[in-house]
Amino acid sequence: MPEISSPTAAHSALATPDPAAALAGLLASVGLPASAARRARLTGADPVLPSSFAVGTASQVVVATAALAATELGTLRGQLPQLVSVDMRHAALECTGWFTVNGQAIDARDRFSGIYRTADGAVRIHANFAHHRDGALRLLRLDPATAHPSDAEQALRSWRALEFETAAAQAGLVVTALRSFDNWDATPQGQALATQPLLTVTRIGDAAPLPLPPLGAAARPLSGVRVLELTRILAGPVGGRTLAAHGADVLLLNAPHLPNISAIADTSRGKRSALLDLREPSGRAALEALLRDAHVFVQGYRPGALADLGYGPQQVAAARPGIVYVSLSAYGTQGPWADRRGFDSLIQTAMGFNVAEREAAGDGKLRPLPMQMLDEATGYLIAAGTAQALRRQQMEGGSWLVQLSLAQTGQWLRGLGRVADGFRAPLHASCRDDMLPWMQTVESGFGRLEVLRHSAVLERTPAGWDRPAMPPGSHRATW
């Protein structure tokens, strides 16, 4: 059965994780010098949010690593090194993705999204996009126009969990069976993932260092860096927002025919936002014109989708020698699931986090992590990997490929260890009162936003967002 639990795996390494050690390990994974850790001031300790996993430590160290990577590039560009301070509570709450629009919190979850019992276990269905929801319902021989979640519950009782997971994957849908850690580790994909590093930064071509303007003492360390962001779901947009917080000029490019999620109101802070249809000659011509002056290309579409349109890593590097190309996937580049679609909640279910949280809580309830931790952490790792690849490009020349996945981030989070009494944490993921010390109200093209300030506090170049969040298509597709 896919949901068989493993008490040994779920309750191992219950301790208080060490943020300093976690940061040192993360700096090494990104390729940053160990000396960067001496410029970090980390305050707080787990637990901060209710979880048996070190979500506070994870939040703090990914935010710090992204900031330190930016300042390392700033130092290379002539700035003095500077201190980076990150409070664990602030970082963890920022990673909840909390925001309101005109005073209202937005819950965009579809009523069909969730975990369902099957004949031998359980599956999670992700239905927040209509085409994924309707596809799953049709696979169950239900009419999307009239079906109710109870109909889906009844229909799934006749399926085995792994059979439905496989059928959904073959149909290009987003469904996964519920597993424990041991179940996941025994799968071919779990075994492939165990051999992969957290992220890779690889040279993929020759080029001279791309010109970047010199920095003044007060300039943000990524000022003058031009980023093309072709992402929609949370991790990629968080990465672009983080680059913008440290000064990058981020141009978000959405396709006019594809839906977005409500979090775009928060994750678009600091960016310009344009629409391009890469199926049309005019859209491709506009992107190619933008590429001529870009330093970074970030993409988070399903594996192979942009390559099929002519914008894979090697294709973009040929068009713009010296580019840093960042590629985000769900399950990594190796193993039988390398081409599968996936979202944070699904990967938590597939990899064993929901079962492990149930066992740690001891109340029999399946639990997600208290935030979309895989998405959020991967977003900050995108920013860190980008800054490190830019640094190498400035020092060595070349075109560079940064590769990350939500599942690799999940493997890293699991490796941080577990938190004793984690469900007695003092903060809550959706409590507005907990947000108040770091909350700010800003105007945007979506309405009046209540959001959180960035949790990385830099000694001389404060991080933040000068441009308001705007809906897709609010700007022209030009620099």
Structure commentary:
The protein is an alpha/beta fold. It has 19 helices and 17 strands. It has helices at residues 7-10, 19-30, 55-76, 88-94, 130-139, 149-156, 161-170, 181-185, 188-194, 235-245, 264-267, 281-291, 305-308, 313-319, 344-351, 353-361, 373-396, 406-415, 432-435, and strands at residues 40-43, 84-87, 100-101, 104-105, 114-117, 122-125, 175-177, 200-205, 226-230, 249-254, 271-275, 296-299, 324-329, 399-405, 439-444, 447-452, 456-458. Strands 8-14-13-12-9-10-11 form a seven-stranded mixed β-sheet, with helices on both faces. α10 links the parallel β9 and β10 (249-254). α3 runs parallel beside α17 (373-396). The protein is globular, with a radius of gyration of 21 Å. The model is unreliable at 1-13 (pLDDT under 50).
Which key terms come to mind for this protein?
479 residues, disordered N terminus, four-stranded antiparallel beta sheet, 16% strand, alpha/beta, 19 helices
Strand and helix layout:
Elements: H1 7-10, H2 19-30, E1 40-43, H3 55-76, E2 84-87, H4 88-94, E3 100-101, E4 104-105, E5 114-117, E6 122-125, H5 130-139, H6 149-156, H7 161-170, E7 175-177, H8 181-185, H9 188-194, E8 200-205, E9 226-230, H10 235-245, E10 249-254, H11 264-267, E11 271-275, H12 281-291, E12 296-299, H13 305-308, H14 313-319, E13 324-329, H15 344-351, H16 353-361, H17 373-396, E14 399-405, H18 406-415, H19 432-435, E15 439-444, E16 447-452, E17 456-458
Parallel strand pairs: 1-2, 9-10, 9-12, 10-11, 12-13, 13-14
Antiparallel strand pairs: 2-17, 3-4, 3-16, 5-6, 6-7, 8-14, 15-16
Helix pairs in contact: 2-3, 3-4, 3-17, 10-17, 15-18, 17-18
